[in-house]
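Intended use. Records like the one below are meant for learning the mapping from a protein sequence to its folded structure. Do not use them to infer anything beyond what is encoded.
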Amino acid sequence: MNGIKTMWIAVAAVAVVALVIVGYSWGASHSSNASILGSGDYASGYAAGMSAAKKKITESGLIPPSPATVNTVSGTVKSVDTDRFVIAANPVSLNPLDAPGPTERTVVVTDKTQITARIPMTPGEMNAANKAFQDSMKAGTLIPPPTPYTEKTVGIDAIKTSMVVTVTSADNIKDATTVNATKITFDALPSSNPTVPPAPTAPATK
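Structure written out for the chain above:
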């Protein structure tokens, strides 16, 4: 997954550089022609070049298409109130040519909002889950493969600043500064600390 993301970042960087070069060249040539014809300027030529280059790059398929509808956004919690919290929002599109969208969003929580904390399993819990999965395969009764966490329904009081959350809404929130959340998910701390064996002690001397 990280490899795919890195590839898109590299492609996006090349696309943006190409866009700027084409826009610059188009602007220069059109400003020169405009001076001869007595109309236009460099800025309008540059804008036309950027628009044309953006269209070409978008149609080439080199970068992901712009989403028309966005229902999920993630970000880092900046502040929390009784029925809402504010996040520093991540971009909702992988297309570097898209407008970045709101960098800060207010997430509204109601009594219908499902808030789920994903709690990492302890090594013992993970071993037990793996064993149950393997036993089910041997018995011919398959169960879903284990995940490295358990899920717990919590309230808004479990959301703290600096947490990274994923928010889902029934609405199109691509450009929304206020998000009415139907579901919120975040990674929590382990439910219990793993048992640490006691440090060895020197034998008693007679």
